[in-house]
Amino acid sequence: MKAKAFLVFMLVAAGCATGSVDQDEPRRLLGRESDVRVDAQMFGRSVSPGGIVTINYEIHNFRTEPIAFAEGAATADLDSESGTITVRVGAEVPGTPRLPRLEVIGPGEKKSFSTGARMNFLIADRGEELSNYPRSLRVRVNFLRDIRPFSMLIGPPAGVQDPKLAGELFPVWVENIESVTTNSVPITWGRPQRTTTPPRRGRN
Known about the structure:
The structure is a single chain. With 204 residues, the protein is mostly beta strands. The protein contains two helices and 15 strands. Strands 6, 7, 11, 13 and 14 form a five-stranded mixed β-sheet that branches. Strands 1-2-4-10 form a four-stranded antiparallel β-sheet, with no helix packed on it. The longest helix is centred in the first third of the chain and has 15 residues, at 2-16.
């Protein structure tokens, strides 16, 4: 039974590692903090309202201890002052009855992933003024520096349903969270085309 469970875990882990990054890509995103490095690659240069941005990313752990992160759906938000979109990976927290499944990256290990984030934020339309529209994009990966309190979340193919455990783990999760933010790359914001109706001409 143990061997079978280990085999299932390895198959699940292998299925997550799908998004390699082209190291020769000039628009590659790169960030390194606290001995954790993130390489990411955005597909395409144009971003549209309600559209999905696909990103491949690699996490390389240079620490002597394993780290973990919640590999789930990515989210995106916009800083209207700088015009920067931040795609957040691993931002899910155990604040709901469902606790996220954790992916572990061992010391010196690198793993590859792929995700998509929908551009659902609202932007005020100021006509032809483009100063408040997105102009760049970056990636931020959250990870847990100590995986020991979260061993029960490692391995299951789906999140754990346990409201009591979620409440207990939330403060511990917040204390252990760290993040790596990459540089930004310029993007083209594709606004919906505005249609105008020409005035009707008639007889006086």
